[in-house]
Amino acid sequence: AQSVTQLGSHVSVSEGALVLLRCNYSSSVPPYLFWYVQYPNQGLQLLLKYTSAATLVKGINGFEAEFKKSETSFHLTKPSAHMSDAAEYFCAVSEGYGGATNKLIFGSGTLLAVQP
Amino acid sequence: DAGVIQSPRHEVTEMGQEVTLRCKPISGHNSLFWYRQTMMRGLELLIYFNNNVPIDDSGMPEDRFSAKMPNASFSTLKIQPSEPRDSAVYFCASSRAGGAAGELFFGEGSRLTVL
Q1: What chain A residue is nearest to B3 in terms of C-alpha separation?
Q2: Cβ atoms of residues A85 and A58 within 8 Å
Q3: Mean pLDDT, 10 residues at a time, over chain B (115 residues)?
Q4: Which residues of chain A neighbour B56 with C-beta distances below 8 Å?
Q5: Cβ proximity of B88 and B34 under 8 Å
Q6: Distance separating alpha carbons of residues A114 and A101, to the nearest angstrom
Q7: In chain B, N or C: fewer CB atoms in 10 Å?
Q8: CA separation (Å) from A14 to A7, A48, A87, A103, B72?
């Protein structure tokens, strides 16, 4: 069964600093991996996804993530944090081979705070 | 294009009452998902449908929970009788089956409080 683990339930950075949110996955088949963002009182929206093409994936709002098979990781980064990036971020893996289903298994989330 | 529409946005009810949450997926999407979000358990998939047919309901907590999708544009999640531990935010999401892998579109959620 596939799963994801997000390290750090809370991350705080200064405005302009590097954002690094960690996600490790477990999967017996090549995984499809995703990052979603949730702003307060809203639903989740897709930031970016890895579906076995390029290992460095660029998403919206300047975020990117790199798939590293050797480390079973899919960490999310942004070079310079903005106040508007404050939100909760979820890593997810698609169940089944090659994203055969759209059933997503989510991590526990990382709440990002951005200090002025 | 309208997004996923959920109602009600907030519901406060007393233990033992029936609760019905509603969802209208994005037109043209043929997969629909119900998730529950709590502080303790995070995001849990309750059930999902493909082409109005329930595919996996292994996440439904118990028989008090039921979900239906009578047509492509409407789904309900019912809790009867409700209990305080059902308090959570319930999200509906839709996607195109076989389309952009893993791209789920979420509604804004229904926040349920059971007293």
Answers
A1: A43
A2: no
A3: 91 97 94 93 92 91 94 96 96 79 88 97
A4: 103
A5: no
A6: 35
A7: N
A8: 19, 23, 14, 35, 45
Q: Which residues contact B55 (CB under 8 A, 6 or more apart)?
A: A101, B48, B49
A1-22 mean pLDDT? 94
Could you give the CA distance from residue B82 to residue B90 in angstroms, rounded to a whole number?
14
Q: How far does CA B115 lie from the centroid of its chain? A: 20
Q: How far apart are CA A39 and CA A16, in angstroms?
A: 20
Condensed to tens digits (0 to 9), the pLDDT of residues B32-52 reads: 999 999 988 899 999 999 899
How confident is the model at residue A51, as a pLDDT? 85
Chain B residues touching residue A41 (CB < 8 angstroms)? 108-109
Average pLDDT of A1-25?
A: 94
d(CA A95, CA B77): 23
Q: What is the per-residue pLDDT for B98? A: 60
What's the count of helices (H) and strands (E) in chain A, helices before strands? 0, 11
Residues 6+ apart with CB under 8 A from B99: none
